């Protein structure tokens, strides 16, 4: 029966739908610094570039939704919707930047020059030396910005601080099915050992 439970879990994992592509800014306090690491991919299908935008890692005062990681410039796209703020106050330029630029600003986002929709963007970082979340005005939490729709729907997330991961629905389905199969196997084993001789 345990063997059947494992087979069932493998079958469920085959039919599980993976999460859509997403780009994430992971913001952490590392020693005396705040480090923003950007990674992931973005689905630009159906979006139109609004032209080039030159930016380097920074937080900006006049825009409560503004975060850029990396160095350089790239095309800007519109259509982002999400929270009005993640606690920003004041302009702060990052002290060091590595990797290609990726950013978001209110309803816009920036991708590296020559970016091909849906491909992994190499990780980029921006470091704010001798800073804390409080000194940068950042409120810990996860902030999700959405764009596109239907099969092209995608997200741009800012994760500030250590946030517990939430399993995807497909993972929940596999776990529940697995627990059910193990429970059924245990119940059957109890019945078998208690049956009269």
Topology:
Layout (H helix, E strand, L loop, with lengths): L1 H14 L6 E9 L2 E8 L8 E11 L6 E13 L13 E2 L2 E3 L3 E4 L2 E3 L10 E8 L4 H4 L4 E7 L6 E7 L8 H26 L3
Parallel strand pairs: 1-11
Antiparallel strand pairs: 1-2, 2-9, 3-4, 3-5, 4-7, 4-8, 6-9, 7-8, 10-11
Helix content: 10-25%
Question: What general outline do the C-alpha atoms trace?
Answer: globular
Largest sheet: 6 strands, mixed
Strand content: 35-45%
Give the tally of β-strands: 11
The end-to-end span amounts to 22 Å
Q: Based on helices, strands and strand pairing, what is the structural class?
A: alpha+beta
- Lateral arrangement of strands in the main beta sheet: 6-9-2-1-11-10
Number of helices: 3
Average pLDDT rating: 78
* Model regions low in confidence, pLDDT < 50 over at least 5 residues: 5-20
Series of secondary-structure elements, N-terminal to C-terminal: HEEEEEEEEEHEEH
Output the radius of gyration.
22 Å
Properties at a glance:
globular, six-stranded mixed β-sheet, 22% helix, 197 residues, 11 strands, alpha+beta
Tell me about this structure:
The protein has three helices and eleven strands. The chain has 197 residues and is an alpha+beta fold. The strands form two sheets. The protein has a six-stranded mixed beta sheet with strand order 6-9-2-1-11-10, with no helix packed on it. Strand 10 and strand 11 form a beta hairpin. The relative contact order is 0.24.
């Amino acid at each position: 029966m345990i063997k059947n439970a494992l087979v069932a879990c493998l079958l469920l994992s085959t039919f599980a739908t993976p999460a859509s592509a997403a780009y994430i800014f992971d913001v952490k306090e590392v020693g005396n610094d705040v480090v923003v690491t950007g990674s992931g991919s973005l689905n630009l299908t159906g979006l139109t570039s609004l032209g080039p935008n030159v930016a380097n890692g920074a937080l900006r005062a006049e825009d409560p939704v503004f975060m850029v990681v990396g160095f350089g410039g790239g095309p800007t796209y519109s259509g982002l919707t999400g929270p009005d703020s993640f606690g920003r106050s004041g302009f702060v330029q990052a002290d060091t930047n590595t990797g290609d630029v990726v950013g978001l600003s209110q309803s816009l986002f920036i991708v590296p020059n020559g970016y091909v929709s849906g491909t992994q963007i190499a990780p980029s970082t921006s470091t704010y030396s001798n800073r804390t979340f409080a000194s940068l005005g950042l409120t810990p939490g996860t902030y999700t910005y959405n764009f596109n729709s239907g099969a092209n729907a995608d997200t741009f997330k800012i994760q500030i601080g250590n946030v517990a991961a939430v399993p995807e629905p497909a993972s929940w389905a596999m776990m529940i099915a697995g627990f059910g199969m193990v429970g059924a196997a245990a119940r059957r084993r109890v019945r078998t050992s208690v049956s009269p001789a």
